[in-house]
Specification:
Structural class: alpha/beta
CATH topology of the largest domain: Cobalt-precorrin-4 Transmethylase, domain 1
CATH superfamily of the largest domain: Tetrapyrrole methylase, N-terminal domain
CATH architecture of the largest domain: 3-Layer(aba) Sandwich
Strand content: 15-25%
Shape: elongated
Number of domains: 3
Order of helices and strands: EHEHEHEHEHEHEHEEHEHHH
Largest sheet: 5 strands, parallel
Radius of gyration: 23 Å
Distance between the termini: 53 Å
Helix content: 40-55%
């Protein structure tokens, strides 16, 4: 029976790869990679001559079927651009179909930006909630954050440089000005670890470059019980009126929070629950 090897590769420094991974990569009949250009650099460094083909989100159904057919007679290695495959990148479909068709699937463990970041955060991460990449659009992103606003365990997300500023803004509005640990370009030349609250992170990352892992401290206390319900009711009525007048949450929530001393996340929850959503 042929085998699909799911191989962890370096997240930056090409020396961070296991001897077993190198052996399997050199022995398999074919390597399928998220981006052949990235993986080729690794193969050249270790003089590995195995055939390599692309396996990205483009034409994913066709390629999955193609490589399942290849597994009928040959062993296959699955790699991603950085870290462990099938976590926030292509690979899940191929693994799923290999299992469905009865092929052996073997993990070759290796680097992961998730666990690497967690290990140097200094936070208690005996339990945590991994959210991957949050949605692209602010409204969807805020809705996702609202579902975990009261989480008693830390949150871990991935983020891209072009979205970091907006993501931090949404995090602050929904979660409050929490402690975060932001890891940038781990194991690479420009590796950087930021520790501080979200406000300071916004000031620090004015021109974000690289890939980011963000660890967010859990909710440490319940401040909802201290909110004056009469003030909250008035704020909710005001939200409905302003929304009807065409204002957006970004226009209203920060100002109303300062005025009423009600947390932004609470007001935003009311915003989403009010009629005629426009933002």
């Amino acid at each position: 029976m042929s085998t699909l090897y799911v191989i962890g590769t370096p997240i930056g420094n090409l020396e961070d790869i296991t001897l077993r991974a190198l052996r399997i990569l050199s022995e398999v009949d074919l390597i399928v990679a998220e981006d052949t250009r990235v993986t080729s650099k690794l193969l050249r460094k270790y003089e590995i001559k195995s055939i390599i083909e692309s396996y990205s989100n483009k034409d994913i159904k066709y390629k999955t079927k193609k490589f399942i057919g290849y597994l009928e007679k040959h062993d296959l290695a699955l790699v991603t651009d950085a870290g462990t495959p099938a976590i926030s990148d292509p690979g899940k479909d191929l693994v799923d179909q290999a299992i469905t068709h009865g092929f052996k699937v073997v993990s070759i463990p290796g680097p992961s930006s998730l666990t690497a970041s967690a290990s140097i955060s200094g936070l208690d991460l005996s339990n945590f909630l991994y959210l991957g990449f949050l949605p692209n659009k602010s409204v969807a992103r805020r809705k996702t954050l609202l579902t975990v606003v009261n989480s008693k365990i830390p949150l871990i997300i991935f983020e891209s440089p072009h979205r970091l500023k907006n993501c931090l803004e949404d995090m602050k509005d929904i979660l409050g000005d929490r402690l975060v640990v932001i890891c940038r370009e781990l194991t690479k030349i420009h590796e950087e670890i930021f520790r501080g609250n979200i406000t300071d992170a916004q000031k620090y990352f004015l021109k974000p470059i690289g890939e980011f892992t963000i660890i967010i401290q859990n909710q440490v206390d319940d401040i909802g019980e201290n909110i004056d319900q009469n003030v909250l009711k008035l704020a909710e009525e005001l939200i409905i009126k302003l929304k009807r007048n065409g204002l957006t949450s970004k226009d209203v929530i920060p100002y109303l929070s300062r005025l009423s001393n009600i947390p932004r996340k609470t007001l935003y929850s009311k915003w989403l629950g009010s009629e005629k959503p426009q933002d």
